[in-house]
Amino acid sequence: MPRVLHLGKFFPPFAGGIENFLADLMPAQLQQGDTVAALVHDHQRQWSRFFATTTAEIWNNLSIYRVPTYGRLLYAPISPQFPVWFNQVLSQFQPQLLHLHLPNTSALFALGLPRAKRLPWIVHWHADVTSALNSKLSIAYHAYRPLEQRVLARAHTIIVTSEPYLASSIPLRPWQNKCQIIPLGIALSRLSDPPEQTQRWAEQQWNNPAVKILTVGRLTYYKGHEILIRAMQQVKGAHLLIIGQGEQQRYLQTLITQLNLAHQVKLLGYCTDTELNALLATCDYFCLPSLERTEAFGVVLLEAMRYSKAIVASAIPGSGVTWVVVDNQTGLLVPPQDEVALAQALQQLINNPQWRIALGKAGQQRFEQLFNIQNIAEKISVLYQQVFTSMNTTG
């Protein structure tokens, strides 16, 4: 069985879809007999760790190496020790294959480390870097792109999470022949039925008997929370909870106050996994109002589907969201940045509870068929074996 080192950006308890996916994938790989570890950035800024030695945290019988960081620049961790840790982990763990999760600026150090260059690479392409809504990110991408393309050229195989994203990705266009579609997935064990006490807590957060709408995501520019809040002005008979933290938190709270929506919309901030599961279990349906392809897949959609919840989401051109959610079968898709269309879809599900339940049940069936992490881990394991077979044949 292969020894695989994952290179990720962060890892739980950092809250993020890609981070949760990796934390679900690795135990599933361990159950299959693979030997896996992860090299990631510590999401907490700790100057006291500046001279920390390269040591692993043992998490669920897996080695997680968290490299010290000192802030972020355009969402990229500032981690000068990363290449040193990377080289030492390669020596200590002695992987046979590197599984690079991009975008991640620190993964580019693989291009300069002889130990890394002697190994086959799989690139897991989670999202393009470019953004139509963030000009600073688009400008910075010009410097990042040449190195990104060198990584893609060096990769044996590129995993892309959906056909729509592959078809619309400009950075992947030269490498179509080495791309494989494997969707993201989640572990059922992580999304168990919440304890009765936590479920009571969740019920208390819905402060009126109206239909309960939930959205979860970092409070940042592309998530569309402002559009959703404005749409709620036109929605009757519903209460919205927004879960997450981020740089737009103060602005969104001010907007809720200005629009006199405090009785109908609430920013709940950070929640533990158990609390989030309870909110997913007790809500009536879920909304993902993201604005652009930076929302490449939407792991949180899978979490809502696991709890049999109908979904209202943005039909982002070229995003995997439009494949994860089947319009009028597991949820409703609306044009991004269209608060009127969003309000109409939200109201439709409020007014039609039986249809809402039917959509949720269909979503749960789709989840079980396509997005269980065991199935995803098996597909990735097959890919690993293909890589080793190819390397042995050509070697």
From TrEMBL:
Signal peptide positions on this chain: none
- All residue ranges annotated as the Glycosyl transferase family domain in the record: 204-366
Task: Output the Pfam families linked to this UniProt entry.
Answer: Glyco_trans_4_4 (PF13579), Glycos_transf_1 (PF00534)
Task: List, for all copies, the residue spans of the domain called Glycosyltransferase subfamily 4-like N-terminal.
Answer: 16-185
Q: Which UniProt keywords apply?
A: Transferase
The UniProt GO MF terms for this protein read: glycosyltransferase activity
Keyword S-adenosyl-L-methionine in annotation: no
InterPro entries referenced in this protein's UniProt entry, alphabetically: Glyco_trans_1, Glyco_trans_4-like_N, Glycosyltransferase_grp1
| Keyword check for Transferase | yes
Protein name stated in the entry: Glycosyl transferase family 1
Which source organism?
Thioploca ingrica
